[in-house]
From TrEMBL:
Residues 31-61 are annotated as: Disordered. GO terms for biological process: proteolysis. SUPFAM superfamilies: Cysteine proteinases (SSF54001). SMART domains: Pept_C1 (SM00645). The lineage of its organism: Bacteria, Pseudomonadati, Bacteroidota, Chitinophagia, Chitinophagales. It comes from the Bacteria. Belongs to the peptidase C1 family. One of its GO terms (molecular function) is cysteine-type peptidase activity. It comes from Niastella vici. Residues 38-61 have a biased composition (Low complexity). Residues 74-286 form the Peptidase C1A papain C-terminal domain. This is Peptidase C1A papain C-terminal domain-containing protein.
Length: 288
């Protein structure tokens, strides 16, 4: 089993994005209203104002509507319907699997499908990985792979099946490029890995979250019912698509690319609080 995630934008990794809070916006607004260094002179002119008859009309004050519209509560557990977990083998193609898993789910829900098909809505990691891989088939970067989906799209698994037997140098044919153009994404967005509400909201709306993790031996040894909660050592970086959550487990569910016999039928549960610890890089969602 292989991981194979290359660090995205080294200068930006672990940089905290600017978040404009309501408190900060209030302070900025107050500062603009009381700009220092400007004094308004006092008007001392005396003006005689004619007397106006008193208006004795009675006005009925309308009650103030104090109703607070609460956000729709999230379900306590949710799982996106995903394609079957596949096996990446000896190539460092985890990123390609994660982004094509996510693209498959987006297509599944967009079209109202009732099943996954390699010819229709399961997409080719081979198409992505062979165009963005590092030398030696050792890995790739998430943003580079997502940019490829934005600029080119991706063809179906049936059109370009994944294989570790032909290396990673086989490039798409004209027909595969043409098919891929039908499955472009519009863009992709970044999420803060510690924002549990944002991540759960995306999942509950059927948008898998692409996340890269620092993994350890306990990750390799995952089993049914295992919840990943601690990180001991560093066995490299690995990218997966987070596709579910369960408040009873206090954990997210992620689909891996090490086949259906690994972990929990090809999936792993990751503790909510541990998630931002293990998620060593940015997390992303696809926008169609």
């Amino acid at each position: 089993m292989y991981s194979g995630t290359v660090e995205d934008d080294a200068a930006m990794v672990n940089k905290t994005p600017l978040v404009l809070s309501a408190n900060l916006l209030t302070k900025l607004s107050t500062a603009r209203k009381s700009k220092p260094g400007t004094t308004t002179p006092t008007d001392t002119t005396t003006t005689t104002v004619p007397t106006t008859p008193t208006d004795t009309t009675t006005t009925t004050t309308q009650p103030v509507d104090t109703t607070v519209i609460a956000p729709t509560p999230l379900p306590s557990n949710y799982s996106i319907v995903m394609p079957s977990p596949r096996y990446q083998g000896s190539e460092g193609s985890c990123v390609a699997f994660a982004v094509t898993y996510a693209r498959a789910a987006e297509q599944y829900y967009k079209t109202g499908a009732v099943a996954y098909s390699d010819a229709v809505n399961v997409f080719s990691p081979e198409y992505v990985f062979n165009q963005v891989t590092m030398p030696g088939c050792t890995g790739s970067a998430v943003t580079t792979s997502l940019d490829l989906l934005k600029n080119q799209g991706v063809c179906t698994w049936q059109s370009m099946p994944y294989s570790t037997n032909n290396g990673c140098s086989v490039l798409p044919t004209t027909a595969q490029f043409t098919e891929a153009a039908n499955y472009k994404i519009a863009s992709y967005s970044r999420l803060i890995d510690s924002d549990k509400v944002a991540i759960k909201t995306m999942i509950s709306k059927n948008h898998p979250v692409i996340a890269t993790f620092t993994i350890d031996q306990s990750f390799y040894d995952a089993y049914p019912g295992f919840i990943w909660k601690t990180l001991t050592g560093n066995s490299g970086s690995h990218t997966m698509a987070v596709c579910g959550y369960d408040d009873a487990k206090h954990a997210y569910k992620a689909i891996n690319s090490w086949g259906p016999t690994w972990g929990d039928a090809g999936y792993i549960w990751i503790d909510y609080d541990f998630f931002p610890v293990a998620a060593s890089y940015y997390t992303y969602v696809i926008n169609l």
